[in-house]
Design goal:
The chain folds into two domains: about 140 residues, Serine Threonine Protein Phosphatase 5, Tetratricopeptide repeat, CATH 1.25.40; about 55 residues, no CATH class. Helix content is about 70%, strand content about 0%. The chain is built from nine helices and no strands. Helix 1 packs antiparallel against helix 2, helix 2 runs antiparallel to helix 3 and helix 3 runs antiparallel to helix 4. The radius of gyration is 36 Å and the shape is elongated. The two termini are about 70 Å apart.
Length: about 240
């Protein structure tokens, strides 16, 4: 068995598998609204398809269109992605126009062979149907291109909006504490910066048992610097307890 004959077949299988995988990954990214990743996967699929000679113009045009649709959904302030989307739609249009020329030639060949070669005549009839479908597809692609050209571009962000975006990003990037108890982390940090002074007159009433202990303790035995449970200590205690 000649190994050299198996190599092209193995390469074809590998390329077909790559195309299938890239297309599936792109669809998953698109369904998950990860449009930038979807674009990259569709582009990878397109590159492999271009290496093959058996991928139809319709298959290539479809991939160009999928790239354009994903690009359209990515927020774009400068309009660069929108221009890329239009470019991919135009690529799809050119591919389908080339396919239309091929089908028309096939249609003409079938018409001239009518009555002489039944098979060629049948092929010509099939080509006529495909010509109509391709013309309809080209019109739809051209409508999509015109639609993309009329999409209003987003206005550039003002300095105030940029500052707000940076502030929100800084807040969201705050990491939780090591034990994962971050429910009151931010509040604790704020309270610790400036603990509220305790007013002796506003001290809470103690229970009878506590009162008896205090009454039985002489002034000399009392701690001259009692430990007061501040809000910061309460929050810290609650965060330490699982």
């Amino acid at each position: 068995m000649d190994a050299s004959k198996d190599q092209p077949q193995s390469l074809d299988k590998l390329q077909n598998k790559l195309i299938e995988v890239y297309d599936l990954i792109a669809q998953v990214h698109q369904e998950g609204e990860e449009f930038e990743l979807a674009v990259e996967s569709y582009k990878s699929s397109l590159e492999v398809k271009k290496l093959r000679g058996d991928v139809s113009a319709g298959g290539l045009a479809e991939t160009h269109l999928m790239i354009a649709l994903a690009l359209e959904l990515i927020p774009d302030e400068k309009g660069g992605r929108l221009e890329q989307a239009i470019g991919h739609v135009e690529e799809a249009i050119e591919l389908m126009k080339g396919e239309l020329d091929r089908l028309r030639a096939k249609e003409s060949s079938g018409a001239s062979a009518a009555g002489e070669d039944t098979k060629k005549a049948a092929n010509g009839a099939t080509a006529s149907s495909e010509v109509e479908e391709t013309q309809s597809l080209i019109r739809e692609l051209e409508a999509k291109r015109d639609e993309l050209k009329t999409v209003p571009q987003a206005l550039p962000m003002s300095e105030k909006d940029k500052a707000l975006e940076a502030y929100l990003a800084a807040i969201n990037s705050t990491k939780p504490i090591a034990n994962g108890k971050a429910a009151v982390n931010d509040l604790t940090n704020l309270v610790k910066k400036r603990p509220r002074p305790v007013d002796a007159k506003a001290a809470p009433k103690t229970s009878e048992s506590s009162s008896s202990v205090l009454l039985s303790t002489t002034p000399d035995d009392r701690d001259p610097h009692p430990s007061v449970e501040t809000p910061a200590k309460k929050l810290k205690t609650s965060s330490d307890n699982p």
